[in-house]
Design brief:
- By secondary structure, this protein is α/β, with parallel strands linked by helices.
- It has a single domain, classed as 3-Layer(aba) Sandwich (Rossmann fold).
- It is 45% helix and 16% strand.
- The chain contains five helices and four strands.
- It has a four-stranded parallel sheet, covered by helices on one side.
- The radius of gyration is 19 Å and the shape is globular.
Length: 152
């Protein structure tokens, strides 16, 4: 049985990306064990001042259940086994723990890329994602704005 560990944070994006993976693996049609790991968004520092730890954990749990409810039926309809987890530690440590259980597992990072935000690596040797071609470091943008103002 193939085992695939999938990190996700947006169900629409993940379902679109999984369609390609499932389509490629349908020719081999062996049973697959999917381990879905939800990566909820971080709460801002200001919001976390007003919300206690229990409420925060309940929100994370409900958020992940909503994501899993949108993805798991499609995978289970194919006859695959689905396990769900909520990311709680740094993702590289979580990946290491999951790979210790089954070294032949594959790891997929299907988290939606965000503008100006590089997500944390999932595996220790993971190369950085290619950002948008429009992403510009703040110092360069500031110098450009300063030069425009200076010329006027």
């Amino acid at each position: 049985m193939d085992k695939i560990i999938v990190y996700l944070d947006d169900s629409d994006y993940a379902r679109h990306q999984l369609a390609h993976v499932v389509g490629a693996s349908s020719s081999r049609r062996a049973a697959t064990h999917w381990v879905l790991v939800a990566c909820p968004p971080r709460m801002t520092r200001h919001l976390s001042k007003w919300v206690n730890h229990t409420s925060r954990e309940n929100w994370r749990r409900k958020w992940s259940e909503k994501i899993f409810a949108q993805i798991t039926p499609e995978l289970q309809a194919r006859g695959d086994v689905v396990s769900t987890l909520l990311a709680s530690s740094p993702l590289t440590e979580m990946t290491r723990t999951l790979l210790n259980r089954d070294e032949a597992a594959r790891v997929l990072d299907l988290r939606r890329p965000r503008f100006g935000n590089d997500p944390a690596a999932v595996t220790p040797g993971q190369p950085g994602r290619q950002g948008s071609p429009w992403a510009v470091p703040g110092a360069v943008a500031g110098m450009g704005a300063l030069l425009v103002l200076a010329t006027e």
